[in-house]
Design brief:
- The protein folds into two domains: 128 residues, no CATH class; 127 residues, no CATH class.
- 72% of the residues lie in helices and 0% in strands.
- The termini are far apart.
- It is built from eleven helices and no strands.
- It is mainly α and 259 residues long.
């Protein structure tokens, strides 16, 4: 249990530093960077401190490490490339006025708490008593690899579409985006199924099925789809409404005929 408290303290200090930085830069978007890197670093810490089967810990570390580096790096590049605060954070700042710093204090600490919670699968896996469950290792690894490759490809397809000036004001319907309005979010959700499968045989493994449930709730109701769709409707109007009518919101599926 000591490693859990050490991780909690470390994340708290990092989040307080992040809050202090946003007070001076007036840009809170790096809270997302702290979350994604925080989950990865905390998970690796648990896996290094654990004494479960070494192959299981190595595979888990590779999956969560690549996920954290890819997502954290993607968000960090986006934050550094923009000369203004991301829209949802700017809206918070405008709405709360002088109260924004105290709000962001709890917001950053909340990001740290979420990072601590989403790293718990690694702690459970690191404590796996053995022996190694081979079929669970193969299945969990396969799910994780497919999810990582799918999310990476979705982001690449969208980035390639946006770089073409002829697509300005249009909605991407290429590749995976033909079958889902948010294929990147779908594969992000799928990724979290790999850890409860990898943890099969460990004490408390059943609780890890809450990870994909929590991720779905965040993506569907809080940080993902609602904000993204509002921004898309604001910038692309009727073109995006047509996309909503014909394309699955989340799980990839064949497009419907327009109305």
């Amino acid at each position: 249990m000591t490693v859990l408290w050490v991780a909690a303290l470390g994340l708290t200090l990092v989040c307080l530093l992040g809050w202090w930085v946003q007070c001076r830069t007036l840009n809170a978007a790096h809270a997302d960077v702290i979350w994604s890197f925080g989950v990865g670093v905390t998970s690796i810490f648990y896996l290094l401190a654990g004494d479960g089967p070494w192959l299981l810990r190595v595979v888990t570390g590779a999956l969560i490490g690549f996920w954290s580096l890819r997502l954290g790096g993607h968000i960090l590049r986006r934050v550094l490339a923009e000369d203004h605060e991301e829209g949802r954070y700017a809206a918070m700042r405008e709405a709360l006025g002088e109260r924004i710093n105290i709000f962001h204090l709890f917001f950053f600490l909340g990001q740290g708490l979420l990072a601590w919670l989403f790293a718990l699968p690694a702690w459970v896996i690191a404590s796996h008593p053995g022996p190694l469950v081979v079929w669970a290792l193969v299945l969990g690894t396969s799910i994780g690899v497919v999810a990582l490759l799918g999310e990476r490809e979705a982001d690449r397809q969208l980035d390639r579409f946006r770089r073409n000036p002829l697509n300005r004001g249009k909605t991407c319907r290429e590749g995976l985006w033909r079958y889902s309005r948010h294929p990147n979010y779908f594969f992000e959700w799928l990724h979290w199924f790999s850890y409860p499968v990898l943890a099969i045989g460990a004490a408390g493994a059943g609780w890890l099925w809450l990870a994909p449930v929590m991720m779905f709730l965040f993506l569907w109701f809080v940080t993902g789809i609602p904000y993204t769709e509002r921004q898309a409707l604001k910038s692309r109007g009727e073109d995006y409404r047509e996309y909503q009518r014909t394309t699955s919101a989340f799980i990839p599926w064949r497009p419907r005929h327009g109305h």
